[in-house]
Amino acid sequence: MDSAHAPQFRVKLASSEDDLRAAQRLRYRVFVEELGGDGPLVDHDARLERDRFDQWFDHLILIVDARGGDVVGVYRVLRDDQAQRAGQFYSEDEYDIDILKRSGRRLLELGRSCLDMDYRGGAAMYHLWTALADYVSRHGIEILFGVASFHGTDTQELAQPLSLLHHRHLAPPPLRVRAQPAHFASMDLVPEADLDRRAAMLKVPALIKAYLRLGGHVGEGAFVDHDFNTTDICLVMDAERMSERKKSIYTKGVTG
Q1: Neighbours of 173 (CB within 10 A)
Q2: Which residue, of 101, 125, 188, 252, is most buried by count of CB atoms within 10 Å of its CB?
Q3: Residue 7: which residues within 8 A CB-CB, separation 6 or more?
Q4: Dist CA 61 CA 13 (whole Å)
Q5: In whole angstroms, what is the distance from residue 35 CA to residue 255 CA?
Q6: Which tens digits make up the pLDDT trace of 143-168?
Q7: Beta strands in the chain (DSSP E)
Q8: What is the residue extent of each domain of the chain?
């Protein structure tokens, strides 16, 4: 695209009900219409993907002025002080994160990352990522974490990529969150010697690959979310590993 006609991106924190609804409309297009998700508070008539945690999260929204100020990217973030007011982190319904909460380090939960289909594979996510990095720095965040998803709920279909993550990218003990016992789904499905690494990585979503390249790890066990039509893993990353060099690789459109 000619630089004179390139989209003019702006990222800001949602500051009004209209901003939040714009984010929820984008999430509906991606997570409901595109990926087949659902949930108890999803408003199909208004085409809004929402949940009970939205009121507690900050919402980074990516705006394109050339499209009349359309919101084309979203990143939902929840600091530990906000989680205290909410009563929990979103991820705690799926993962036991007590090991992170006991660390005494500042935590930030990430979620609902998505881009409009027209803006994937370009600079859009880089703008969101840069804004996220600024947010992390401003609030003194030390550990980032959050669930990321594979499409579909058949863990046997996902046996190769889940096993690859388990064998090669499992978080070290001080960061190793674990799926809640009541719905723990093993990711150790294929012996490491039998992994087809290339084939497995092709099935790993772009968001998860990006976090791995940035030095992220995965928790132990997966969570099968039938409402959202996904198999979730928990990603954990030490913020100190987010160097400028590594941030530059985060340029592809992703959903998670």
Answers
A1: 7
A2: 125
A3: 64, 65, 66, 67, 119, 124
A4: 6
A5: 10
A6: 999 999 998 999 999 999 999 999 99
A7: 9-13, 58-64, 70-79, 95-96, 107-115, 143-151, 178-179, 217-218, 223-225, 230-238
A8: 3-247
Instruction: Assign 190 to helix, strand or coil.
Output: coil
**How far separated are the first and last CA of the chain, in Å rounded?**
27
Nearest of 87, 204, 75 to residue 144 by alpha carbon: 75
Gyration radius of the chain's alpha carbons: 18
- Rounded to 5 degrees, φ, ψ at 96 are -85, 110
As a whole number of angstroms, the distance between CA 39 and CA 69 comes to 28
Summarised one tens digit per residue, pLDDT across range 42-92 is 999 999 999 999 999 999 999 998 878 899 999 999 999 999 999 999 999
Tokens of 7: 């989209």
Query: Phi and psi at residue 3, in whole multiples of 5°?
Result: -60, -30
Place of tokens 């380090």: 105
* Token output for 75: 């990143």
Residue at token pair 């660390």: 103
CATH homologous superfamily of domain 3-247?
Gcn5-related N-acetyltransferase (GNAT) (3.40.630.30)
Contact 59, 20 (CB under 8 A): yes
